Every structure is written in C-alpha cells, then in structure tokens.
Amino acid sequence: xxxxxxxxxxxxxxxxxxxxxxxxxxxxxxxxxxxxxxxxxxxxxxxxxxxxxxxxxxxxxxxxxxxxxxxxxxxxxxxxxxxxxxxxxxxxxxxxxxxxxxxxxxxxxxxxxxxxxxxxxxxxxxxxxxxxxxxxxxxxxxxxxxxxxxxxxxxxxxxxxxxxxxxxxxxxxxxxxxxxxxxxxxxxxxxxxxxxxxxxxxxxxxxxxxxxxxxxxxxxxxxxxxxxxxxxxxxxxxxxxxxxxxxxxxxxxxxxxxxxxxxxxxxxxxxxxxxxxxxxxxxxxxxxxxxxxxxxxxxxxxxxxxxxxxxxxxxxxxxxxxxxxxxxxxxxxxxxxxxxxxxxxxxxxxxxxxxxxxxxxxxxxxxxxxxxxxxxxxxxxxxxxxxxxxxxxxxxxxxxxxxxxxxxxxxxxxxxxxxxxxxxxxxxxxxxxxxxxxxxxxxxxxxxxxxxxxxxxxxxxxxxxxxxxxxxxxxxxxxxxxxxxxxxxxxxxxxxxxxxxxxxxxxxxxxxxxxxxxxxxxxxxxxxxxxxxxxxxxxxxxxxxxxxxxxxxxxxxxxxxxxxxxxxxxxxxxxxxxxxxxxxxxxxxxxxxxxxxxxxxxxxxxxxxxxxxxxxxxxxxxxxxxxxxxxxxxxxxxxxxxxxxxxxxxxxxxxxxxxxxxxxxxxxxxxxxxxxxxxxxxxxxxxxxxxxxxxxxxxxxxxxxxxxxxxxxxxxxxxxxxxxxxxxxxxxxxxxxxxxxxxxxxxxxxxxxxxxxxxxxxxxxxxxxxxxxxxxxxxxxxxxxxxxxxxxxxxxxxxxxxxxxxxxxxxxxxxxxxxxxxxxxxxxxxxxxxxxxxxxxx
Length: 842
Hints:
Largest sheet: 9 strands, mixed
Shape: flat
Oligomer: single chain
Number of domains: 5
Radius of gyration: 36 Å
Structural class: alpha+beta
Distance between the termini: 70 Å
Number of strands: 17
Helix content: 55-70%
Strand content: 5-15%
C-alpha cells in the first residue's frame, strides 16, 4: 500500500470522525415535555385577576369538596394489572372545585376562551384553589375533567373536577395536603373546603379549625396558607402496646429454606465444577456483584453504580467466562457482522429521526453530516483494503465502515441528549436490554459448549421481553419524550430496569438448572448421580417458593418471596421418593434387551397366574372326578419346573428405564403431567404478569405437579415401588403432602368454614390423584410400547382389578369438578387469597 493511499485513507477517516464530532457539537439541547417552573408561560387567569376591579375580586368565592371512597372496578380498568396489589387498599379521591364570580368578572371570559386548555387546567386550579396532594403510590396519572360553566342572574360558577387514584397498605394512614394558591395577586382570598371521608376517620388536623365536624363531613375555611389532615381506616384499631415479635415461624422457615436451597444449589454444581479455576473466578465475581445490586435500596443517588454492575460488568464477566470454557472461538463471519451492524443502523436511524423531529439538529445538517460520515468512512475502508484485490471483501468492509459511522453518529447524539436530560424514554431500556442479553448468550454457550447464532437472536428477544411486553415497548409516547407516569409494579415492588434485570437473572438461573439436567440426563448414569439429584431437588424447591411477605430496607417496603414450608416439604418428599428401599434392577443396555426382559416378565407372570388358577380350580375338579391326583401332580410339577427355570424372584422389567436415558424419559412424563394439570387452571385462574419474568413466576402453579412428573420419569428406576402404578402411588403421596402443606395456614384459619376447607382439600387431592394415576397408566403403556407388546397383556378392560386405578382417578376427578363448581366465590377467595386469608402457593 502506497503512502498516498495511506494518507487518503487516514484523511477520509478523519473527515468521517470530524463530521460526527461536528454534528455532536452543533446539536442543541432538546426541549422537555413541559417548560421548567421558572420559565412557565404567564397564567392568563393571574393577568385577568390583576385587571379586575378590587370589588369584583372580593366578590369571588371558592369552594372545594373532597370525596374519599374505595376505587371501584370501573375506576381501575385503565390501570395495568401489574400495578394493582390486591393485598392493599385502592383509594379514589375526587376533588370538585367551584369558583363563583359576578357577571362582570373578566375571569369569566378568560375561562370561556380556554387559553391553553387542557394543558393549563392544572395551572388554573393550582392558581385559584391551591394544589391538593394525596400520599400513597399513584396507580394512574391525575385526571382532570373539562370545566363546567353555569350562569344565572346572580353570576357564573365554574366547576373543576380532579380524580386521583392511590394505593396504600391496609393499615396505612392517608394524608391530604392542601397547598396555598400560587397566584399573585390572589384570585380568591379565602377557601371553603369540605372533606367527605367515607370509610375513613379523621385522625389529625394541622392548621385547621373545623366549622362543621361530623362523622360524614368535615368543613373548614382557610386563607392563603397550607394546611393538612391525616385520616385512618375507620375499621382499623391501634394497639396500646406493640407486642414484641420475639419469634416468627415465617422468618425461621424462610431462613431455614434459604439455607437448604443454598446447600442444594452448591451440591448441584458438584466438586468437579468448583475444581476449575475459571468457575471459582465466576463464583467470586457474582458474589461480589450481588451485594452491589442492593445499592438502590439504601442509597438512591448511587443507583448508577448498580446499573453499571448489572448491565456492563456482569455481562463482561459472563462473556469472559464463556470464552475460557468453550474450546472453540465464536464462528462469526463477515455476514454476521453485516447483519448486526445493519440492525444497529436501523436503531440508529430511529435515533436520528428522533433528533430531527425534536430539533436536536436541523434536517439538512443531520442529512449532510450523516452522509459525509458514512461516505468518508466507506472511502477510507476502500483505500485501506484495495490492495487485497478481492471485490466482495472490499464491498463488505466499505458497508461495515459506513454502517459503523452512522451508528456512531446516532450514539453520539443519544449521549448528548442523555446529558441534556431529554431523550427517548425507552432508549435507555433498549441499551440496557442489549447489554443484559450478553448474559444469556454466554450462559447458553457454556451450557451447550458451543456458540450459536440462534441463541444470540433468542437471547436478545428474551431480554427485550424481560424489560417489558411488546405493548409497553410500542407505547405511543415511549419513543417520543419522557412523560411523567408511574412505573409498573408487582405488588409494591417498582419494576425499574434494574429490578427487571435481577428478576431476569433469577429466571435465567432456573433455566440453567433445567439445562444442567438435560446435559446430565443424556447418559444413563445420571439416574444415580447425586449432582443430578440435587439439581432436580433445587428445581422443585424453586418452583414451590411461595410469594408473599415483605421487608423494609431504607424505609422502602420491598416484597420478597416468602420461603415457605412448601419448599422444605418438596425437598423432604423428593428425598423420600429417591432414597427408599429399591430392589436391584438390571438396567437394559438397549431396546432389544428391554424387549427381552419384558417378554420374560410376561412369561413369568403367565406361569404364576396359571399356578394360581390350577390351585383355584383343582379342588373342584378333583372333587368332581374330572381331574385325577396323578394328573394334578403332573401339571403342578410342570409349572413348578417352568417357574424354577425362569426364576421366582420379583419382576424388575417394569422398574427399569426401558433402555432410554433419563432425559428421554423425563420429557414425556412432564408433558403428560402438564396436559393432565391444565384443566385445573380454570379453578386456579390463568397466570398474569407485567413482563416475562413476572408472568413466568405467576405460572409456577401450572408447573409444580408436572415437575414431580419430570422427577418420576428422570429417576424412574429409583422411585419407590416395583411397578409403574405402585411408583405412581408413592409419587402421589409425596406430591399430595407437598401441595397440602402450602394450605396449612388457610386450613387453620378460623374464619373459614369446615365445608369450604373440605372443598379445597378435595380440589387438591383430585388434581394430584388424577395427574399421578394418569401418569402411572401412561407409563405402563409406554413400557409395553417400547417393548413392542400390547398394553392389554398387563391391563385389560375385562379385569376389575385392572380397572381399579382408572376408576379411582375418574371418581376423584369428578369429585374435584363438583367441588370446584360448588365452591364458587368462597373457594376462589381461599385459593387466590384476599386481605384476610393467608394464601398458599398456586
């Protein structure tokens, strides 16, 4: 490459970089969605009040009526479901302002002209009546109705209606702040205020002397100064002495379950995992990063550090770990780079469009700067690579350079908007989601021991869903200017991007446990592997963690999973299932050996049945003279000889894995259990959630029994019992004990009748028995199907004994259906929970 071409190449690169820098420096700050308080436009009402005659101003009267009531279902229709916590109170506060004026008041004409309405409605009401603030979490933005005018011979009355929706704890106090009017000169000199508390009782008054004080109404008059009042739920009583909480079973169980789960998780990794230096480095890095994620709870000003750790440091740590574990380098090609940079260009063009629409740069300047940057970068790439002499390579490098220049320009303008404090609100979440996506990419690469393009695409899509549903991403204002609105919630937990990222990590951890079972379960030795057993128990314990309870950190009420007794019982029952007495089972090496074992077992079963039939019919036939003693002895000797030849030990062919690896047995068992469980979703209700992680967490109740079915198939030879149905009945006992343990607080609730409790038990028992008995019948059919034998050889419709198990399942299923139909709202309240009942896991 000659010196001239080198100079040209570097010169064009500098031109491209200079164009990006020029556009960034020339960019203007974008105006926010609302002007700052100090530069607000003059209030037309204040100007009109200043022009009015003093007598006209003294003739004005202002009256405010505040009504407090429980929010009805119609009031909450527009509120996202993730923000509503059924354990708390939803309160509707309706404020009605009335301003009465004489006929010649200039304010009337100003109001009729409606200057700036509806944007200036808040400005008008705050100027005349003063702002009213209500404590509590906002469920929706404050709404204001159009003003209503009423005129007669005496004057004109303007009515303004404001509605606020708040959410408070069941024992929380409600505080109302009546701010002073901010108009100067004052539009009115005095304000008459009436509060209708409804189901609330006035607890405290500050700066208020009531003129009318009754249970249903409190009226007072104030001037241009702020006052406040505090209300308490009328049905809530305050204890004289707070009883010390010396011991809490919930806390003790939570700590015990956390310790047990941590121990099982550590055991599931195995000693071999910890023996590798890169795995220890990963564990140490995650252990150091975990406490830093709690920074926003204690010091909100330092939240940026938590974001850097979760969305930058942890992804880099995961990628570094994956690079050290996977023996091969990523198979990325130039085409992959073109696709990725092309996607970046599409995102960049969106940002450039935002910059043009909101005046960050004029359209001509933006177009010229972008074109110069892209063309100069492409020309520089051509000058650098022309010596290669391969035209496709030169074209691709030129395209990559042009796309990189456009992306760099968009990134620079985005950072400039970010420093100015006005930027597309969802652009932050997009950048964070793309950074977080590197974690599942690295995790899946480590789990599968290879890099995959499909995994990259899937990880990006999942990370976007972790940060919000498509409806949230495609919201009309999410790519315009930031709008003041409350964040989505799960109970009282605000779903900020970092909270969503942490919940996504927990979901990813659960997926990694399942992938570990898949990797181990491809070999038959996993049935007896303690690492696989611990991993399976960890999956069960996670699925049975019950949501509920809360903890207060830095005066913030943070809901946490209540590590309840169900998780401990799941651990104990799983251990009981897998550590019971189990006869030595010769495992078939392949399907042919399984077929031979099953046929030998069928032959042995035929000989046993024949011997029993000979003894049953022999007495009658010998007594009737139809069978002689020598003939009977001859038949008996022949049967005993045949049985001695085939062995008298118990059958084990139906207790083996049928020549299949554990994972291949676990998947059909899980599928059948899930299909049998789905009808009960009508009783429990379909899962809901504000995003992917909350939706998956809410759908755990659909996976708990199928997870027991997964255990049944994965560790089938180790499960207690020697036949599919006996193993299924042992599984039913373990699953039933686990499911019912979650309802112990509900069953101990004195406010619930015995009949309602029986209905709950009937639903749980019916579901467990239907799933487990159905799984046992399916497993009989599967073993016979894999052996190439008809199912009728072990279970026939002509045998009452063979019909006992299916009949039991059908009777219990019918009883469950009747119980769920008769339960109505009462059982729905018990199963889903309310403000009184202690709920169990679904």
